[in-house]
Amino acid sequence: MYDIFYQLPIPIVNLTIGLGMGSTELKCVGCKIYDKGTAAQWYTSVGIPFLPFFDVHLSLRRVSSKIKTNAASGSAPKGTEYDLGGTVAGIGIAFGF
Q1: Per DSSP, which regions of 9-78 are E strands?
Q2: pLDDT digit string (tens) for the chain, length 97 residues
Q3: For residue 12, what is the domain's CATH number?
Q4: Do 43 and 18 contact (CB within 8 A), yes or no?
Q5: Contact call for residues 67 and 81 (beta carbons, < 8 A)
Q6: Are 29 and 51 in contact (CB under 8 A)?
Q7: Exposed (0-12), middle (13-18) or buried (19+): which is 96, by Cβ within 10 Å?
């Protein structure tokens, strides 16, 4: 996945936003019936500085992906599209220089 982030120039709060694009591939014994898919994500982080080089931050990332079957499987015909993805929230300490 390729990402691009931008930290907004706000003096009191470190606000970062970003977007990403890439591909998804399922790797398992029974996964050969799935083609590679496309993936997209957005990201945001809010940090509050507490020392010159550190901040405490909260972040949220949402990833979405779509894959298709390249063969029939069970009741799903060839070309069936599945939506995969998820949301991750985090809290941490960042070091910047």
Answers
A1: 14-24, 37-51, 54-68
A2: 899 999 999 989 999 999 999 999 989 888 888 899 999 999 999 999 988 889 999 999 999 999 998 888 777 888 889 999 999 999 999 887 7
A3: 3.90.1150.210
A4: yes
A5: yes
A6: no
A7: exposed
Q: What is the DSSP letter of 77?
A: P
Task: Return d(Cα 38, Cα 23) in angstroms, integer.
Answer: 4
Q: What is the pTM of this model?
A: 0.76
Q: Per the structure, how many domains does the chain have?
A: 1
- Cβ neighbourhood burial of 51 (10 Å; 0-12, 13-18, 19+): exposed
Residue indicated by tokens 């399922």: 26
Expressed as residue numbers, the domain containing 47 is 2-95
The single residue listed with the structure tokens 């936003």 is: 17
